[in-house]
Design brief:
disordered C terminus; 13 helices
């Protein structure tokens, strides 16, 4: 039963993500079939798992959009609309994780503000000033020609389209993102269905939610083993003698299965060389490569 629920939740995740990119493409003025949307998300899943900090995900999906016949600017706009709908959900998820793991955060914040005054406020102001200076320098570099004019023009057009996206499209994308994130996090409780003494539901759900998004900040691909160490130490629940088997099953459904399917789809539809180029993203400058 747990395996059927896990497969169903994974299918829901994939379907709503395909709908989300279809909606984003429609908002950008293009058209995308469900098959192409489903396939390019597999590209992104595989590249995200096999590159540091999931850096290869968006380039792989961009490649899938252009392979589906979209113009590059339309593909950039679609990804921008999708990201604009995603990040508010990620911030809310981060706040929920913080509230769950730090239940006394209000008392801690009050204590910090009571003990720390001018020095810390000056530090915050310095950081804000540095951010503003960096933004100013980037603008000057762009205007001075360090960034190619064509690239700047495409990004300006893309950003203008993102800002003009209707609120209901962004809200719908955010709702689909919520469904996707919740479905992926529920896979671990689904695998624990029927166990004699499962961990508390909240611990499994929030633990899985945190571990799934940990590769965004952990530099090595797919968490680099840190996810496995955290899971084995009971971060997402104590499964007793089933701890290792639950880890293997959970990683299979949340990472391995879609990575294998995505790599196969990318090699079949884009070719082996294109797939290798995507998977090299984030590994630094390649040596000995001729152009």
């Amino acid at each position: 039963m747990g395996h059927l629920l896990s497969l169903a939740l994974l299918a829901i995740d994939c379907v709503v993500r395909a709908w989300r990119i279809q909606l984003a493409v429609w908002t950008a003025g293009g058209r995308l079939s469900f098959d192409d949307a489903f396939r390019l998300n597999l590209y992104g899943e595989a590249a995200s798992q096999l590159t540091p900090n999931r850096l290869g995900g968006e380039p792989a999906r961009f490649l899938g959009l252009t392979e589906a016949g979209l113009r590059p600017v339309t593909a950039i706009v679609a990804i921008g609309v999708e990201v604009a709908a995603e990040w508010p959900v990620f911030l809310i998820a981060g706040a929920a994780l913080f509230a769950y793991y730090v239940p006394d955060w209000r008392d801690a914040a009050a204590t910090w503000l009571h003990r720390h005054r001018a020095g810390e406020l000056v530090s915050v102001e310095v950081v804000a000033l540095l951010v503003l200076v960096i933004a100013y320098l980037l603008q000057r570099l762009a205007r001075a020609g360090f960034v190619r004019h064509r690239v700047r023009r495409q990004w300006r057009v893309a950003w203008a389209h993102v800002r003009r996206a209707p609120w209901w499209a962004l809200a719908s994308g955010a709702l689909l993102t919520v469904i996707s994130v919740v479905a992926r996090a529920l896979i671990l409780p689904a695998l624990a269905w029927g166990l004699p003494h499962p961990p508390p539901f909240g611990q499994m759900f929030f633990g899985a939610l945190a571990l799934i998004h940990a590769p965004l900040i952990v530099p090595l691909p797919s968490g680099g083993g840190g996810l496995e160490v955290a899971f084995l130490n009971g971060f997402a629940g104590d499964f007793g003698s089933r701890q290792v088997s639950m880890l293997l099953l959970w990683r299979f459904y949340t990472a391995v299965l879609l990575t294998v399917l995505g790599f196969y789809a990318m090699v079949r539809y884009l070719g082996y060389r294109a797939a290798v180029q995507v998977f090299k993203i984030g590994w630094g400058k390649r040596r000995g490569e001729t152009t």
